Every structure is written in C-alpha cells, then in structure tokens.
Amino acid sequence: MNLVTAEHLTKSYTERLLFDDTDFSINEGDKIGLIGINGTGKSTLLKAVNNGNAYPSNVVFGKNVTMGYYDQENLNLNANLSVLDQLWFDNTRMSQTEVRNLLAQVTLTGEAVFKK
C-alpha cells in the first residue's frame, strides 16, 4: 500500500537551495531515515510534505493516511502532558496499548512514557 508520494519538491531559503525537483514514495512496511548534518533541510523536507509548502509540488497521501508531525522545538506539544498522554491525545482513535506499542518502537517503554 502506498502511504505517500511526493513529486517535484523544491525548497530554498534566500539563495540557498535545500532540495530541487525531489521525488519519493513511501510504502507500507518501509523504514525511512533522514540523515544529514544540521541545516541541510531534513526538517524542512518533513514540513514541506506536511504543509505542502514546497513548490512546485505534488504530495499525495494514501487512502486513510494522515501525517502527524512534532517539530524539533516542541512548539505543538502540551508541557503538562506525559509522552504517553500527548501521543494518545493526538491519536484518539488508538487504544492505549497501540500508543504504547508506537512508543516502544522508539525505545520509550516502562516509566519513560510517563515523563513530561
């Protein structure tokens, strides 16, 4: 199942080109890693896919697929919620077990899920 397809993504800041005419697709079961030094456009690429702010662009999400994004500055997080509660709040259709399984995939288990 195709989760997301992006075609012709281009983004620059002032005169610095971060990516140009970039295409990719992500399918169910794929494991993706964005690797690079600071300032190379990793977060910008994710924001471009999430917000559709890379031009010209064509980003298509698969059926029943929505993108969730937590920015690196944590601006969209509630500081009063635990890690578990924040993820559960943002994914209300998931059971607590499903949310804990997601957290376990990024090595947040046991008491760590209750940290703020």
Can you tell me about this structure?
This protein has 116 residues and is α+β, with helices and mostly antiparallel strands. It is built from 3 helices and 3 strands. The chain has helices at residues 42-51, 83-90, 96-105; strands at residues 2-13, 16-27, 58-61. Strands 2-1-3 form a 3-stranded antiparallel beta sheet, covered by helices on one side. The protein is globular, with a radius of gyration of 16 Å. The mean pLDDT is 87.
Beta content comes to 15-25%
Low-confidence stretches: none
Strand order, largest beta sheet: 2-1-3
Question: How many extended strands?
Answer: 3
- What can be said about the biggest beta sheet? 3 strands, antiparallel
State the helicity in percent bands.
Answer: 10-25%
User: What is the H/E string?
Assistant: EEHEHH
Structural class: alpha+beta
Radius of gyration from the alpha-carbon trace, in angstroms: 16 Å
Give the averaged pLDDT, no decimals.
Answer: 87
Could you state the oligomeric state of the chains shown? single chain
Q: Whole-Å distance between the termini?
A: 35 Å
Shape: globular
Strand and helix map with partners:
Elements: E1 2-13, E2 16-27, H1 42-51, E3 58-61, H2 83-90, H3 96-105
Antiparallel strand pairs: 1-2, 1-3
Question: Can you summarize this structure?
Answer:
The protein has 116 residues and is an alpha+beta fold.
